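Example record

The entry below shows one chain as it appears in the dataset: sequence first, then structure tokens.
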Amino acid sequence: MRIIEENAETVINELSVHDALFKKLNYHFSEKVISFDLVDLEWDKVITKLRFNNVIGFTMDASAPWGGTNMARLLDWEVIAKEQQVLLPILYKEAERYKLGAYLDTRKELRFFETIFAFSTGDVLRIVCESIDVVVTPIESKQE
């Protein structure tokens, strides 16, 4: 399934990812793609693979202000309303300031949106992208 600006809030709210383990964060610079897995071992027993396409910016803190463990669980995933966006306005300002408008100007027809992930450690991941591909697969239980 593909998430775009128009359906982002609805689709994200329908996904069952609360308390899932955050795994395998990858950033592919040349492809402008971020991918990672959210693994639910307790409730739905699924792996939700997320691939963020045409990423133009992201920030993440990893200081574990609420106390660190060796596992980060997802507390919340939200789409940020346009009037509350933090990163996207900064990216547009920087593009203007450094005359980098060619990159963003050629993509004006694209609808970038900003999402934020809050983790059990107190850390936050913020991503601005054009779309998100979601693949949910069941975790196979071991037969004994």
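Notes for this example: Helices lie at 8-14, 87-97, 101-105. Strands lie at 2-3, 21-28, 33-40, 46-53, 57-60, 74-79, 113-119, 124-129, 131-138.
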